[in-house]
Amino acid sequence: MTFWLVLGLALLAMLSPVVWLRPSPRERRLVGLREAAREAGVSVHFGKPPLHQPEGGLVAYRWRYPQTTPGPRCVAVRDSHASEALKPCAEGWRWRIEPLRPLTQEQRVALEAVLAQLPGDALVLESTRDFLWLWWRESQPAAAFEALDARLGTLRDALAGNEARRGPPDAPC
Predict the structure, then answer these.
(1) Tens-digit pLDDT profile for residues 143-158
(2) I need a surface site. Which of 17, 54, 97, 135 has the fewest CB within 10 A?
């Protein structure tokens, strides 16, 4: 009897690290979401978000602008993480960095539509010359990524080519 008890405890001791290494349901969901993003041509970036001491981890999903039509430099932050001193951008969002060149009516409509439909854990929408960035906590399942990708891809296409340059807008580079 003692032999079987010792053998059982030894087997449990050997198998317990395997159970600890097994991914949790959340980790499996994140792997599926990130794979869906990579398949759609969206890169995932783990870095410092443009927020001061955000609680919890934020991950950036990046949609690349075409090299021939770079994007504008701007940052929109959700009201819950923005100062009241910042200028309103859309319902529930404020400009941390407003675009230098004003957005056209079409671009503004596209931006407001996307901001209204972002998941609640999306805290920052940033545009740089090369990428449109979504800083969020990855709350959506992989199946919902297709709709998010379509919305942000449409916004990226609308904003492309609005890079502010020195001099008049029609001046050659």
Answers:
(1) 889 999 999 999 999 9
(2) 17
Q: How many CA atoms lie within 13 A of 148 on its CB side?
A: 28
Gyration radius of the chain over CA positions:
22
Q: Which two tokens stand for residue 145?
A: 């990524």
Residue range 74-89, pLDDT digits in tens = 999 999 888 889 999 9
The whole-angstrom separation of Cα 76 and Cα 156 is 14
Q: Is the pTM of this model over 0.70?
A: yes
Angle between helices 105-117 and 142-159 (to 10 degrees): 160
Enter the tokens of residue 12. 């449990």
Q: Is 5 helix (H, G, I), strand (E, B) or coil?
A: helix
Is residue 70 within 8 Å of 156, Cβ to Cβ?
A: no
Where are the chain's structural domains?
24-49+57-159
